[in-house]
Write a structure and sequence with these properties.
The protein is an all-beta fold and about 400 residues long. The chain has one helix and 34 strands. It has a five-stranded mixed sheet, with no helix packed on it. A hairpin with a 3-residue loop joins β7 and β8. The radius of gyration is 20 Å and the shape is globular.
């Protein structure tokens, strides 16, 4: 394996070829699965959801449960960027799941506090919060089992951060430490700094818009990076936190959450932010209910989607800033105080929006052009995080 190292010289995350730590077992009500057949079969547009003690792999069209995989602890999932893999963030690091084969692999990127997984411009980037290690590789290389060419950059100080590899080979990476996060820098293909902004307190999350423009959230708005420079987009409130975003290649507007109370134990916002990356303007849209950090998505034409606590999927025209449709899907619900606790989640892929409902242990598939529910499944366990192979 060839590796390029940049930054403060920490060790390269190891790709382990050890025995599997995840064990397959029985299935939920969505369908029966023969473990040997599952290993040979290819799951159609696989969907993955976690639960307390494991995760389910489902067929993305029928929602049949193809495999139930035991995995202790609180685990997170993210698309790896291709059409068959998902990364599972475990206590050891980023474990690669072959969702299309409904089986785990022996590929593990060791990481202390594995955090964000970002897919952009054909590259997948992993961020380890505990060390500040940024690991990047060609997304397509995952099809061979593990990447042959891995680049590692290490931030000056460890923090809960995020990194994005840009279309020109540059790297956008956040700035911060355990006490505070202040902004971001951009490094060129040789990892020399070319742009910096420390005008983004509490920086969190990222998303890309049409034209490869990247935005990151701040506690007072957002930062946009385009054409080699950062632009600050100010929030209309002194404290206007954008911590989670959803972008689209079909739109110049990025959808973000929006909170205004820095002292709240748990703020349940009823407005979302629309960040226009071309005009560098931010507007707010009032919703009929609150929502959570797992409620944001984008439709096939760039429409902004928000899953509300009223049980409806709200469709917003990002150019007009107006709700154009609301599709009632599940019963009203309330966000739990602890962010790790299950709550309804939204995952969008192409024309389909997937919505989980822990209260009924259900997952629903919604055809976005028609608003019709095309499939549903009831699981044995409460679904928590919801994801799948990349759109």
């Amino acid at each position: 394996m060839r590796a390029r190292r940049y930054g403060r010289g920490a060790a390269l995350p190891t790709l382990l070829a050890a025995g599997l730590l995840l064990t397959a077992c029985g299935t939920g009500e969505g369908g029966d699965a023969d473990p040997e057949a599952a290993a040979e079969a290819t799951v159609t547009d696989p969907l993955v959801t976690t639960y307390d003690g494991g995760l389910y792999v489902l067929d993305g069209r029928t929602l049949d449960v193809v495999e139930d995989i035991e995995l202790e602890g609180f685990n997170r999932i993210n698309p790896a960027g291709d059409d068959r893999h998902v990364f599972v963030s475990t206590s050891e690091g980023f474990r690669l799941l072959d969702a299309a084969a409904a089986e785990t692999t022996d590929v593990l990127f060791e990481a202390d506090a594995p955090g964000h997984v970002v897919r952009h411009a054909g590259r997948t980037v992993l961020f380890a919060d505990g060390t500040g290690e940024v690991t990047a590789f060609d997304t397509d290389a995952l099809g061979a089992g593990h990447p042959e060419d891995v680049e590692v950059y290490t931030t000056e100080e460890a923090h809960h951060g995020v990194a994005v590899e840009l279309e020109d080979g540059g790297l956008l990476v956040t700035l911060g430490n355990e006490e505070e996060r202040v902004g971001a820098i951009v490094l060129d293909a040789d990892r020399e700094e070319i742009a910096r902004s420390e005008d983004c307190p509490g920086v969190h999350g990222e998303s890309a818009a049409r034209g490869g423009v990247v935005a990151i959230g701040c506690e007072d708005g957002a930062l946009i990076y385009r054409d080699g420079a950062f632009t600050k987009v100010e929030a209309p409130d002194d404290y206007g936190r954008i911590g989670n975003q959803a972008g689209s290649d079909h739109s110049a507007v990025i959808l973000g959450d929006y909170k205004t109370d820095p002292d709240a134990e748990l703020e349940r916002p009823e407005r979302v932010a629309l960040i226009d990356t071309e005009s560098a303007e931010l507007s707010l849209v009032d919703l009929p209910s609150s929502y959570t950090f797992r409620s944001l998505g984008r439709g096939p034409e760039g429409e902004a989607l928000v899953l509300g606590t009223d049980g409806a999927l709200h469709v917003i025209d990002p150019e007009k800033g107006e709700i154009t449709e609301s599709v009632e899907l599940i019963d009203p619900w309330e966000e739990p105080l602890e962010w790790q606790e299950p709550r309804p989640a939204l995952f969008v892929r192409g024309d389909t929006a997937y919505v989980s409902d822990p209260a009924t242990r259900a997952i629903h598939a919604v055809d976005l052009p028609t608003g019709e529910v095309t499939a549903s499944v009831t699981l044995d366990e409460e679904p928590n995080e919801l994801s799948g192979v990349a759109p």
